[in-house]
């Protein structure tokens, strides 16, 4: 039974700007799914429609349905959705810069039991041992990679069933991207936590997810298993760097071929 | 010399009384990230609330907690009716909104409850404490002690889990929502706490000068205190308060007779101006962390 279902979701910002035009996707329980696409394709908007964070940007889901398990989450506010097990790691990390890493984790913990908190905290530090070394300094002074780790760790404190990650690779070195993606894979495997990963870095992403959706100009234009997408010649050309055999005489074909849906 | 010492002590104690007013400003800034220019009127309203409850014939030590409960509720209502609409809007909107609230309350509350000065008797008495040649005002002395105690309590509060969540909210509203913190409720609580601080300030100031609209003019020295001490620093209100109080008492103590009065406001304004020019985030205020 799929855990998260988006059906024809349409989001309009400021009552005029149509950001996503009928996106449908599914993330099954324990599944690891990617949402790929270029800048401005509507990836972040899709995630925000699930986590309920469109409000501050004056966005609104105007059509469609979002279901989590067997109930619609559209009427719920952001904190209720987190309580229901959905958590969103925002693009650009957005950790609480003036708090220490520990306080970041405290702020995100929702339960009452101190023992459970310590357990979760130890788990976060086990995934990200680097954070433990920086426990005393303000989180704003951590490096980019450490902040990303903290952002993921903070999200784990809410005990989610589905974690949505918005471009965790942003601004990080390839080595760090590998490390962080590896940990995401571990969390997915060990805890059976579903993962919805939004990325521009298609090459690294398709290596760790099982399925992926490709979104362009607010519409899902392609979906399938990671293998299928990886072997698709269009995806190879436009997202995977042409697999090293770009024929620049045919670059003009780009425009003609980059139309999958009418 | 005794004159100087007396001015100094009285200034320091007055400054701590300013700190009581300023504390409400800092509580809101530190936990919601918004400047609250209605704190003067909040103190005035709280003073009226204490007087009102006492006029029902209740003892002052019952009246103050009751007034605190009323003002906590008042803070929640302000958030629900006014600030919730400001979510995601630029900070200047909140500044103008709270300034508007200040002006509204200044007119509305005395209009309803009466504009003649209302007495609040805390049972402190007016006889000064005399040490050598120096006279110390009893209300100010107790006010100063209460201010120190409240600041200590606030410091402890921000270390608790709720306090940590509130600080997180002041850091980043959107990522607070993203991890399930209810930003609306956090802002409501911070206004409620500022309401409670306002009751303490209103009761003490009200007992020394009576409750009427002039209590709301405490906003001006309070703003000087928070700018000097740092808008988000709890210990900053003590240091800023003492500095503003001492400078604002000692200097007029010598200059008023020459200039013909009212140099206190000039000193306060100069403190605000100089702080903003030399150290815009105040003595203890946090700088925004920017990584390059």
Automatic annotation (TrEMBL), chain A:
Domain ABC transporter, chain residue ranges per copy: 4-242
Q: Which InterPro entries match?
A: AAA+_ATPase, ABC_transporter-like_ATP-bd, ABC_transporter-like_CS, BCAA_Transport_ATP-bd_LivF, P-loop_NTPase
Q: Does the keyword ATP-binding apply?
A: yes
Q: What's a Gene Ontology MF term here?
A: ATP binding
Keyword entries, A-Z:
Amino-acid transport, ATP-binding, Nucleotide-binding, Transport
Q: Which GO terms describe its biological process?
A: L-amino acid transport
Q: Which domain of life is it from?
A: Bacteria
Q: Which Pfam families match?
A: ABC_tran
Q: Which Gene3D superfamilies match?
A: P-loop containing nucleotide triphosphate hydrolases
> Which family is this protein grouped under?
Belongs to the ABC transporter superfamily.
Protein name listed in UniProt: ATP-binding cassette domain-containing protein
Q: What is the lineage of its organism?
A: Bacteria, Pseudomonadati, Pseudomonadota, Alphaproteobacteria, Rhodobacterales
From TrEMBL, chain B:
BP terms from Gene Ontology: amino acid transport
- List the InterPro entries hit by this protein, alphabetically: ABC_transp_permease, BCAA_transport_permease
The protein, known as: Branched-chain amino acid ABC transporter permease
What GO CC terms are in its UniProt record? plasma membrane
Print the organism lineage.
Bacteria, Pseudomonadati, Pseudomonadota, Alphaproteobacteria, Rhodobacterales
The domain of life for this entry's organism is Bacteria
Q: Report membrane topology.
A: Multi-pass membrane protein
Give the protein family: Belongs to the binding-protein-dependent transport system permease family. LivHM subfamily.
Q: Does the keyword Transmembrane helix apply?
A: yes
Instruction: Enumerate the transmembrane spans.
Output: 6-29, 60-78, 90-109, 141-158, 186-207, 213-231, 238-255, 267-285
Please tell me the species this chain comes from. Paracoccus lichenicola
Name the Pfam families on file.
BPD_transp_2
CDD domains, A to Z: TM_PBP1_LivH_like
- For this UniProt record, give its keywords in alphabetical order, as a comma-separated list: Amino-acid transport, Cell membrane, Membrane, Transmembrane, Transmembrane helix, Transport
Question: Does the record bear Ribosomal protein in its keywords?
Answer: no
The principal location of this protein is membrane
GO MF term (any one): transmembrane transporter activity
Cellular compartments annotated: Cell membrane
């Amino acid at each position: 039974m799929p855990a998260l279902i988006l059906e024809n979701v349409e989001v309009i910002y400021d009552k005029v700007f149509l950001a996503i035009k009928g996106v449908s996707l599914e993330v099954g329980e324990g599944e690891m799914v990617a949402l790929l696409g270029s800048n401005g394709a509507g990836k972040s908007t899709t995630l925000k429609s699930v986590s309920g964070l469109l409000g501050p940007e004056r966005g609104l889901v105007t059509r469609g349905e979002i279901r989590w398990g067997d109930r619609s989450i559209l009427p719920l506010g952001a904190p209720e959705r987190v309580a229901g097990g959905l958590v969103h790691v925002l693009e650009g990390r957005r950790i609480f810069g003036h708090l220490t890493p520990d306080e970041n984790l405290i702020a995100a913990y929702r339960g009452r039991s101190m023992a459970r908190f310590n357990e979760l905290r130890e788990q976060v530090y086990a995934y990200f041992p680097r954070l433990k070394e920086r426990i005393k300094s303000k989180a704003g002074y951590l490096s980019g990679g450490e902040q990303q780790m903290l952002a993921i760790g903070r999200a784990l404190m809410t005990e989610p069933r589905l974690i949505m990650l918005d471009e965790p690779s942003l601004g990080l070195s390839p080595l760090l991207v590998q490390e962080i993606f590896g940990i995401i894979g571990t969390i997915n495997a060990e805890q059976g936590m579903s993962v919805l990963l939004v990325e521009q870095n298609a090459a690294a992403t398709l290596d760790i997810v099982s399925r992926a959706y490709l979104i362009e100009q607010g519409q899902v234009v392609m979906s399938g298993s990671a293998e299928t997408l990886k072997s698709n010649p269009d995806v190879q050309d436009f997202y995977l760097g042409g697999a090293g055999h770009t024929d620049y005489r045919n670059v003009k074909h780009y425009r003609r071929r980059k139309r999958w849906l009418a | 010399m005794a004159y100087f010492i007396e001015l100094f002590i009285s200034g320091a104690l007055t400054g701590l009384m300013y700190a009581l007013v300023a504390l409400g400003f800092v509580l809101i800034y530190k936990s919601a990230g918004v400047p609250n220019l209605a704190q003067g009127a909040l103190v005035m309203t709280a003073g009226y609330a204490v007087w009102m409850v006492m006029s029902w014939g209740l003892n002052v030590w019952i009246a103050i907690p009751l007034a605190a409960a009323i003002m906590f509720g008042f803070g929640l209502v302000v958030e629900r009716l006014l600030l919730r609409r400001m979510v995601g809007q630029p900070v200047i909107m909140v500044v103008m909104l709270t300034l508007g609230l200040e002006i509204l309350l200044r007119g509305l509350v005395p209009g309803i409850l009466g504009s003649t000065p209302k007495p609040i008797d805390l049972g402190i008495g007016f006889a000064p404490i005399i040490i050598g040649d120096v006279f110390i005002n009893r209300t100010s002395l107790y006010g100063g002690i209460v201010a120190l105690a409240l600041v200590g309590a606030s410091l402890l509060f921000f270390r608790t889990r709720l306090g940590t969540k509130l600080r997180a909210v002041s850091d980043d509203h959107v990522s607070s929502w993203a991890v399930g913190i209810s930003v609306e409720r956090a802002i409501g609580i911070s206004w409620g706490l500022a309401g409670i601080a306002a009751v303490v300030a209103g009761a003490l100031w009200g007992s020394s000068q009576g409750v009427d609209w002039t209590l709301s003019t405490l906003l001006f020295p309070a703003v000087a205190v928070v700018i000097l001490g740092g808008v988000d620093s709890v210990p900053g209100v003590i240091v800023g308060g003492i500095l503003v109080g001492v400078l604002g008492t000692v200097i007029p103590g010598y200059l008023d007779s020459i200039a013909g009065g009212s140099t206190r406001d000039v000193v306060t304004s100069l403190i605000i101006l100089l702080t903003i020019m030399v150290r815009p985030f105040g003595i203890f205020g946090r700088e925004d962390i920017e990584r390059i």
